[in-house]
Amino acid sequence: MASHETFMALALSESKKALPSCFPNPPIGCVLVRDGEIVATGYTKAPGGYHAEADALAKCSGLLTGLTAYVTLEPCSFHGRTPSCADALIKQGIKRVVVALVDPDPRNNGKGLEKLRQAGVDVVQGVYSGEVGEFLEPYLGNS
């Protein structure tokens, strides 16, 4: 069975597809997995379009129960041009969210993870953080 690191590496591959159209948003990737099988993938679209989590969720059909979301950056907790990704994951019944990095944006910075935990979602932090951090670092200081 594939590991958290394997699925986060795939999420990192997805995030690279977001460039350059996602600017000024950071390039984020998401992989939705059930029982070790990939159900959907997504990445951040142009501003005003889907964030990675919403992009992946939109590609799902049927029940979303039992899914784990692998996301390269903490899901957003606030409503900007798009609704909160943390809220979308909660609403769709995602039971586990695995993230590489906490979002340093002061509007988020742990709030998305706290929102998930408060809703009973199992949150795993720091998976594949070195590799993801190396890729995302140039895009995170300009939030």
Fold topology:
Blueprint: H1 4-16, E1 29-34, E2 37-43, H2 52-58, E3 68-73, H3 85-91, E4 96-101, H4 111-118, E5 122-125, H5 129-140
Parallel strand pairs: 3-4, 4-5
Antiparallel strand pairs: 1-2, 1-3
Helix pairs in contact: 3-4
Structural class of the helices, strands and pairings? alpha/beta
Strand % is 15-25%
- Physical arrangement of strands within the biggest beta sheet: 2-1-3-4-5
Q: Please tally the helical runs, counting DSSP H or I stretches of 4 or more residues.
A: 5
Helix content bin = 25-40%
Number of strands: 5
General shape: globular
Unreliable segments of 5+ consecutive residues: none
- The ordered string of helix (H) and strand (E) elements is HEEHEHEHEH
Distance between the termini: 36 Å
What is the radius of gyration? 13 Å
- The average pLDDT value, as a whole number, equals 94
Major beta sheet, specifics? 5 strands, mixed
